[in-house]
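Ticket reopened. Same input as before:
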Amino acid sequence: MTTTTGRTDETRPGLNAPAGPTGWTRFSEWLDRHSGQFFITPAVVMILIFAIFPLVASLMLAFTRARIGAGGFKFRFAGLQNFEKQFFGSEQFHFLGTFSAFSLLAWAVMAATTAGIVWWLYRYASTKFSWFGFVGRLITAALIFGIVLMFSATLFSGSPFGTLGVTLFYVFVGCAIQFAIGLGLAFLCSQKIRGRGFFRVVFFLPLMITPIGVGYAFRMLADTSKGPFAPLWQAVGLGDFTWVANAWTARMFIVVADSWQWIPFVFIILLAALENVPRDFVEAAEVDGASGWQIFSDITWPQIMPVAATVMLIRVIEAFKIVDLPNIMTAGGPGIATESMTLHSFFAWRSFDLGQSSAIAYLLLFVTVVVCVSFFNLVVLGRIRQS
Amino acid sequence: MTATGHDLSSRGLWQRLFEPPSINRMAPGTFITVYALLLVWTLVVLFPVYWVLITSFKLPLDVASGPYFLPWVDFTPDLHAWKALFVDDWEDTLKAYSNSIIIALASTALSVLVGSMAAYGLARVQYKPKLGSILIFVAATIAAIIAVVRYGVEWWLAGLVALAVFYFLVLALSRHFKTTLANGDILFWIISQRILAPIVVVVPIYIMFQRVGQLDTHQAIILTYAVINLPIVVWLMYDFFTSIPVDLEESAQLDGATRIMTFTEIVLPLSRAGLAATTLLVSILSWNEYLLALFLSTSKAQTMPILVAGMAAGERGVLWWTMCVTIIVMIVPVVFMAIVLQRFISKGVLLGAVKG
Amino acid sequence: MSTNVIDRPSTATPAALTPKRLTISNLNKSFGAVHVVKNLSIDVEPGEFLVLLGPSGCGKTTALRMIAGLEEVDDGSIVLGDTDMTHVLPKYRDIAMVFQSYALYPHKTVAENIGFPLKVRGIEPGAREEAVRDAAAQVHMETLLDRFPRQLSGGQRQRVALARAIVRRPAAFLMDEPLSNLDAKLRGFMRAELKHMQHELGVTTVYVTHDQIEAMTLAHRVAIIDHGVLQQLGTPKDVYNNPANLFVAGFMGSPPMNFVEGTMNNGRFRAHQVDLAVEGGVTASDVTLGFRPEDAVVVDPGQGRFDARVYTAEMTGEQTLVTLKIGEDTLAVKMPKDFEVDYDATVGIGFAIDHGFLFDTTTGKRLDARIADAA
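Engineering reply: fixed in the latest deploy. New output:
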């Protein structure tokens, strides 16, 4: 048996000897113990100062009337006046739209919606009921009812709708288009093609251009007399047509530009999701005899559904904020036909009506939150639970 | 051995066009359709960019007199717009460009740093904030605002008092608060800030900066951008950090590293892919942002998007040519950044965050 | 008197169609510059359970995937029954496959998973339900039809994958290491289940594994593959007792066969202290002697074929595993459980003539020669 000779190191103090407490170690120990706080505090403080505080202040502003005075702004408490104006008062045409008598279509839509909502709430109440969930669904139902009511009184009855309707149009129609084309492109790119990397890079380009740049570019493209498609328009007889003069073409104009810019976002994420579907599943389905379409609908799509739901949630959240494009492409026109709620709020600010500006901004926040939370709970969580 | 029904020559026309002849090849019909559609979209993507590019080389006359498509064939490319931007108005261009670069870089750095730290904290540390404390904070804020607005108290005084009141109230009362929130709630709260349309908070922020005389400065915009993008950073990096095995950090802690050391020496280097993706995304958002910059700057801190918009506001109508130059010039740094960072980004990064 | 359990493909007509013969001829496949499958030719009898056995990366999975149609064939042909399948799409091949990961669709219930091949062929729900219940019953999963894969254990998932394979009564089964994700005890149980099921159904089966015990217990015949080349095709007994080359001899058996490398000199095999007479003409000069641990005994020094030094003796409970050294080479011998021996002792090693194999070291081929009894 051999023994290791011990070494007495006078020159090297034992490596395991505890360091004597110095000022620095005490500080760093204290820091380490509180490191949890240290990591999260900056973010929390920043959000509190620049998001929560302004949020609270904005709410308070919404209840005031602001006037420019000698040394700045003077605020006077005004209760619910700003909100009342939007729904019932002088701004109703601007926010909700011009109401006219219900047409037949409007009645039909209202009846169908009411029936659908009642059935949906009843089904929830009679299966798995919880107060929290019921109240949430009630809020969602109320919002849906209100929106359909607004559209019935305006669009379906032949009169124009206001910024609320315009924003909802941008969000739902725009996101639907972006999802359809983004998914289609992702599906095409996930086939056994060469150059997938090339397409990924090229298709990413629109995201890199500043939104107002996109807006101006599309203004140039859509010009029916000097734009690149002018020969086309002239051949069809639309040579003098101005996109921005007609409410619906102006809205489509903006949706086209917005989609051009945001389809790449949906495309890139869905392509990654498609590439991540385990090959085993697809091969098993192929051996089992499934055709290409059956494989996509039965195997691939359920796999990417959670990702698709989440990416669309992100897209919807961002879409509610749309302002740059309507601002510089049509300036909200013709009239208010393309004015999104953010733009509406911005215009109010520009005319120094801070109270109204905040009120509209808060209404936008309310609609966004209800739509997104509903979407999240019903679609995203539902899909994730399923898979 | 006879070949029966499944041999390749006895299929119907539709099958022959669209059914793959063997497992690794596409059917001819599919091949053509797929590539054709992808090509169409490539044109859809590239054509507007191409149009902007050639317009930047056009004389006002060329722009006004109808569409010209090919340089040197339809029209003579001219550098006058480029000259206008880089020679005649060089100071304005330089100011806007440098402002944009400074603001984008600084706000990206700030939000990625703060956001990563917060994400790491949320991933590894259990926080237990009390609901009651949060309510007290909100109440103190409202009181401070009322004091400043209604009673003309100085903002810093009101802020200090509110902070002190908040601190002492929490100290005194927190033991009575039962409801505690968890990491998931904090995470949700931070990420849900993204639902906030900037327009909701921009007015108070504007007033806030005005009161302290910080309007039209770099720092105001940098701070605002950083906060706006914080939720994205936290979301992406949280998913990234939770996918790193805890063993590595525990081993470092046993070796004597503090949490901060573990974060900087072990976790961050492993998170290069996530950091790269986040940095790219946030810098693009900051670089291209318009509305907030419009609110918070007047002349000194103007950014490129404002320069672009400025070219549509003159009495001479929209100066399409110089605007196109500006747009092109704005794309270049973004492309550069994407090229530099894309090496680090794996396609799974964003996907992982979205799945979570 | 030993009773031989007849291990032949079942001749009873199964509930399926008449079993088909699967013939692979001169199958070749390369991935880039790597030639993964080289001229593989196997004739699988109708109803036979054929195991493709080999180490990781030997090409067995690639060969299986070519039979399934998931990989393109560079050269050669695959014929099932009398249909040439070489270039046919997987869905037309009437073949079912069980993947290593089971590939159960996570969003479908067990019943929907099993019924998927039928749904895809347009069979209506009524007939489908019946077939699903039948298949589920055969794998003892009929009570779990409403569960989702994530709610099942590994063994249950494996059975669902099996049920999905058998539900449409294909002409052949392909299995890619289906038992490798199970723990040891479950593996043994599932092995027996698989074997029984295959016998009952009588479907031609090709099974891929790297585990030689699985191969030995399940197969009617084993095809051993190394680096894309077929080393030997035969019954498990054949392959074990009559290895065709060094690779097969060393691959089968646990612990593996003992090898002593030496040279031939004047009809005698020489290596370290080994000096044995050899019968039968051997032209090669570098020759390897092989014998199995269970075929050898430890005897007194000088009493066996040659001497060796004891390195360790490990009591495993049911036997004693003695490890010995000749020079730097290690040998293993299985002795009864109460056998004791000293470390470093010099002992003799004996084995019967029939249990000693001679291989050409350079080519690996088994030589048609044996050790002579004369000392």
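Residues 101-154 of chain A form one domain. The first strand of chain A starts at residue 64 and ends at 69. Please confirm and we'll close it.
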